[in-house]
Amino acid sequence: MMEAGRNRYGVGEDQVTPRCQTEIEVTHGVGLHARPSVTFTRLAKSFPCSIEIEVNGNNIWLNGKSIVKIMGARIRRGSLLRIRAEGTQAEEAITALKALVARDFDEGIKHGRTA
Amino acid sequence: MAERREFDGKSASPGQGIGPAHLFTFIAGEYVPREGSGEEMEELAKAIDRSVEALSELAARAGGESAEILEFQIEMLTDPSILEMVAERVAAGDGAALAWVGALDDYIERLEDAEDESPRTRAIDVIDIKNRVLGALTGKPVEDFPAGSVYVGTDLAPSLFLAHDWSSGGGIALAKGSEASHVAMLARARGVPMVVATGELEIAEGETLLVDGDAGKVVIDPIESEQPSRERESERDVALQPGPAAPELKAGDGSAIGLHANINDPREIAVIDRGAIDGIGLMRTEFLLSSSAAVADEEKQASLYRLILEWAGEKPVVIRMLDLGGDKQVQGVGGVSGENFMGLRGVRLLLARPELARVQARALLRANVTGNLRVLLPMVALASEVDEIRRIFKLERTYLARRGLTVAMPPIGIMVEVPATALMIDSFHNADFFSFGTNDLAQFLMAAARDNPTVSALHAEAEPAVLRLVRYVMRIARAMGKPVSICGDMAGEPASLPGLLSAGLRNFSVAPSQVGAVRAALAQQTAEHTGQAGG
Fold first, then answer.
1. Which of these CATH numbers, 3.20.20.60, 1.10.1840.10, 3.60.120.10, 3.10.129.10, describes B249-534?
2. pLDDT confidence of A108, banded at 50, 70, 90?
3. Which of B196, B151, B195, B197 is nearest to B170 (CA)?
4. Of A77, B17, B114, B256, which sits with the fewest C-beta atoms within 10 Å of its C-beta?
5. DSSP strand pairing (B16-23 vs B208-212)
6. CB contact under 8 A, A34 and B121
7. pLDDT tens digits, residue range B164-222?
């Protein structure tokens, strides 16, 4: 699913910005409500690349680092989430975010403060 | 000692008041579109910062579940997207608070619309955020002037009038203005002497000024003998003490007459004898909610409405939804074009800016669990406008009920102040009651703006035309089974009462200061009619 066109980050005419995209179904019980949204956007913000999400192929790409946008997207159990990243560490970001969704946002883990 | 100087004007509110002059230099109460909206956004950003700070403190002390909720709220508030949502509204001229509430309400509605199993869990935290920031935004003090002084200016903002402490006396002298303006109505309701159209007064700050609202003149540095005595003022106070229930009024045909009071602020109950009235026939809300922050504040509105409803007990209280536009502007409510009585005002504005209607509808729905509330819509021209407001009430009722709040749907009636509405009154089956607003009806029938002193003579001649229309509406309303009342200034004119009674009106709502005179006039009418019937 990953269409990674990666290049060395640098100056030049044929420079290609690293891009990466993935698709995953949300399996978490209540979808992206408050707590999973915090987890998701915090992780997204830890990457320097831009991250956008699209829900159920509606062709509306939202800023994946914005909790306001993510909450507003009303992502529920069964929603098909497309995540794309562009820029430095795009591939790492996609891998990490996809894994987080697959792990149900670590909701099962008893929450302690992590930082 | 300075020299005595006298200036003629027009009486806008009777009584005499004296005090040091307070010169107000800019024209207040006028909506000025903002060039830059930077200031409002900065204010909002600061309020958000303060909220985040408070939340962080709470989060540091809290643990587990509640800390997570607080952290979610902090994340939301620190997300730049939240300011982006508001920025557009501020750019359109909304004040920070109103723009904030409008944008967040829209957002919350989207969250609540979700057909998922727990819409409340999503929305409730956002509602919490909304209220926290609103709280941080509001509470800015209004620029007041010393109690007991006489206000001198071109015009007076209703918000300033209402925020001022008039209990120490004083008065109002306006260079321009009109006796039919809303501030004049407020002054009459509160018994504050007021003279308008004095022209520019050559007066220094603090110079003694006498406002003679009986003679319609002002006197700078009056001589001792013409100064109003203290006694008169205390007399006025005594007259406002609560008394026993007044005897029932009856029309010539034996039907009961209702006498109600018009107010602008629940605080006015301090000067109303509840025993002397049958209820509140009109509580305007545009003066009460005289800042965009107040317009946006659901909690504050609900508590103000509850105050009046509790005071009135079983007696009906008619609360009119925001009648902004025309000569009533609110600083920081964008999209309102000023100085046009026939523009986007009243219910038109409420529907054009539904966020205003939504906040008010919620506050009214929540307040309606006590007392006997009726909601009145201003400037209605079409039956579809009533349907649209009803739809907003129903929608908000659903949202509030889902949040577990107790709410009740009030009856919804309309102002009859647009001539077309009077002529087409049979099409308003969807309204629960009708209330004549004769001030607007008169100015529209006469095509004479009531804030324009050059045509005030025309305005005064509108009565026969208004009466014909009242008679027409009464006939049809009776057939429709709809209650009708009148809350315009005409009801407060004892000389106009015979005409209104013969047209079929039985419910009158007047300024608190006019209740006594109108009651006396109505009682006299009753006696005369009864006399005729008997003889």
1. 3.20.20.60
2. low
3. B151
4. B256
5. antiparallel
6. yes
7. 788 888 999 998 877 777 678 778 878 899 999 898 888 888 889 999 999 999 999 99
Q: How far apart are CA A88 and CA B170, in angstroms?
A: 70
ipTM for the predicted complex comes to: 0.78
The model's pLDDT over B214-238, given as tens digits with 9 standing for 90+, comes to 999 999 999 888 887 654 443 344 3
Q: Does B224 touch chain A (CB under 8 A)?
A: no
Residue among A28, A65, A71, A79 with most chain B CBs within 10 A, to mutate: A71
Other CB atoms within 10 A of residue B312 CB: 24
In angstroms, the CA B509 to CA B263 distance is: 10
Does domain B5-24+145-239 fall under CATH 3.50.30.10? My reply is yes
Angstrom distance (rounded) from CA A54 to CA B113: 19
**Does the annotation count B182 as an active-site position?**
yes
Q: What's the pTM? A: 0.70
3-class secondary-structure state, position A107 = coil
**Delimiting residues of CATH 3.50.30.10 domain(s) in chain B:** 5-24+145-239
Which is the CATH superfamily of the domain at B38-137? PtsI, HPr-binding domain (1.10.274.10)
Contact present, B67 and B61 (Cβ < 8 Å): no
> Which residues lie closer than 8 Å to B214 by C-beta, 6 or more apart?
B11, B14, B15, B16
State how far Cα B436 lies from the chain centre.
16
Catalytic residue among A21, A33, A87, A89: A33
Fold topology of A19-106: Histidine-containing Protein; Chain: A; (3.30.1340)
